[in-house]
Amino acid sequence: KGIAGALFEQDAIILQHAPDNWIDTIRNILFEKIEYTYGKSRVTGLIAGMLIGDKSQIPKSDYQDFIDSGMVHIIAVSGGNIVMLVIFLWRIFFWIPLYPRIIVILAGVIAYAMICWADSSVLRATIMGWLSLVSIFAGRATSKRRLLAISYVVMLLYNPYFLVYDIGFIFSFSAIIGLILTQNRRLTTEKIPVWIWSIRNNYILPTVGATLGVLPSLLFFIGTTNMIGIVTNIIIVPFLPVILLYSIASTLIYTLRNRRGISRLGKEMIEY
User: What angle do CA 218, 183, 167 make, to 5 degrees?
Assistant: First the structure.
């Protein structure tokens, strides 16, 4: 239609509250714990967006800044969250035999996707993760291209309007296509230290690939882009797992401080 922009509601009036189901109850509890830890601040909105996909508390100006800088993906739940969840569940349930452990992880991934309201990027990562874990049952190798194709078809069967009205759906698949294409460019040589190639293959190439993969869709739908986002993503992306883990740990510790009697110094460190 030739119209593009970020839309925000203003002076909205709630006519009726829908009855809370277990998903809304868990989301509300998680948000309350995050707000209890960080207070009513900009950090609360950032952490809630990264953990459960709740961007409602992020100031409009900040959200627009994320869009303009090409960093809006860091405040959205994505495949990275699913990967971290799988690794976390795999570690803490190490005492469970392999196949029952996979079933537990599959259930955990589905529950997390539902808590995040099954956003298109989360749903895509969930389907691909599910298929990867199921392949372990069958003893089969996985192909990223095939996983991407199957998840694409399944998502459109579930909701064909993803392709028409959900720009996140298009961006998510475009980014993954860019990542897959850059995998063929991964090289190594004995003349250059291994850590340099590791940075190139694990951070620089994926970031460039995802950015270039999204670029055509971004120019078509938005009409503008910020190539500085490639540099900022390379700098910021390695810190995202650390930020997520610290956010979870600090929220748990701060929530339990009254029960466990954390010292004043510990409280001040958490607040800092």
Answer: 20
